[in-house]
Amino acid sequence: MNLLKQTINSISKLDYFHMEESKKRLDSLIKPVGSLGKLEDICIKLSGIYQSKYFDVQKKAIIAFAADHGVYEEGVSPVPQAITKIQIPNYVKGVSGVGVLSKFAGAKVVAVDVGINCDEKLEGVLDYKIRKGTDNMSKGPSMSKEEAIKSIEIGIEIANNLIDEGYKVLGIGEMGIGNTTPSTAIISVFGDFNPKDITGMGCGLDSNGIVHKANVIEKSIKLNCPDKKDALDVLSKVGGFEIGSMAGVILAASSRRVPVVIDGFISYASALIAYNLCPLCKDYIIASHFSAEPASQKALSLLGLDPMLNMNMRLGEGSGAALAFNIIDAANYMYENMLTFEEANMNI
């Protein structure tokens, strides 16, 4: 708990002076003011995060956490739970969705086991296993409060390690069959939404499966009564280990003044946990893409975030964050290399 408290207490506001300096440069470039839209917004935000008019975003990493979920036994996913164990090593090998997109972006992928339902060590995957999956939230809390804190602090530790190694941009990803169920529950709690209105297909449920999944989420919330004013209570009652760990990365990056790029639907739930622990962390988040899950707009509205991409993606893994790394690079390259009106001798 000490690491979590110290991290939250270290998060401060963006540097508005350097944000204004960045905007002045952008407005002086040979283009109509504001005409590069979100590319300009990214540069201004990065100046505020890094406290500098110019910045280095070259060294980037995706941190992907994997865990299984007790609620899987309720039939909330059509995919075998063993896929969690099978797929996460492929992230590091560079052959999964996030693996190939990260390789293309020149980014490192760090895969972390925080709760996969297996005994063996997985090739290339860091072993921070809390235990072999959460409990079934439809029968009781997913985890203890202590485990919720531990999951967050694992994310903080790994993010801090990468920042200490010189990484300047972090992205978050995950792997966990059935994890759209706790994610939808978290969003339902924070937004007071009816699960039946926002539950989606996840890995491919049919219409009957979606109805059943929504009923399981509704039952879980009624049984556990998570307190929306207490993010740790929400995480422990209806969350997942990987969801907590991604929230930890968001908090750590914010405390170290490093931008953190969130992915899709599962990461929205993590961002809500982090945001409700420390609202200031929102300023350090860059939303990569708009997930095809039905609760996405509601979750992003709760966060006040506007994603840069809408690609009909719903893979997860960190794939959207890895794709967005290229846009961040493009924004910075434009910012550094485009001429100003003065430099171009265009005195209009």
UniProtKB/TrEMBL annotation:
It comes from the Bacteria. Catalyzes the synthesis of alpha-ribazole-5'-phosphate from nicotinate mononucleotide (NAMN) and 5,6-dimethylbenzimidazole (DMB). The keyword Transferase applies. Pathway: Nucleoside biosynthesis; alpha-ribazole biosynthesis; alpha-ribazole from 5,6-dimethylbenzimidazole: step 1/2. Its EC number is 2.4.2.21. Belongs to the CobT family. It catalyses: 5,6-dimethylbenzimidazole + nicotinate beta-D-ribonucleotide = alpha-ribazole 5'-phosphate + nicotinate + H(+). The keyword Transferase applies. Keywords: Cobalamin biosynthesis, Glycosyltransferase, Transferase. Pfam families: DBI_PRT. This is Nicotinate-nucleotide--dimethylbenzimidazole phosphoribosyltransferase. The active site is at E317 (proton acceptor). GO terms for biological process: cobalamin biosynthetic process. SUPFAM superfamilies: Nicotinate mononucleotide:5,6-dimethylbenzimidazole phosphoribosyltransferase (CobT). One of its GO terms (molecular function) is nicotinate-nucleotide-dimethylbenzimidazole phosphoribosyltransferase activity. Transmembrane segments: none annotated.
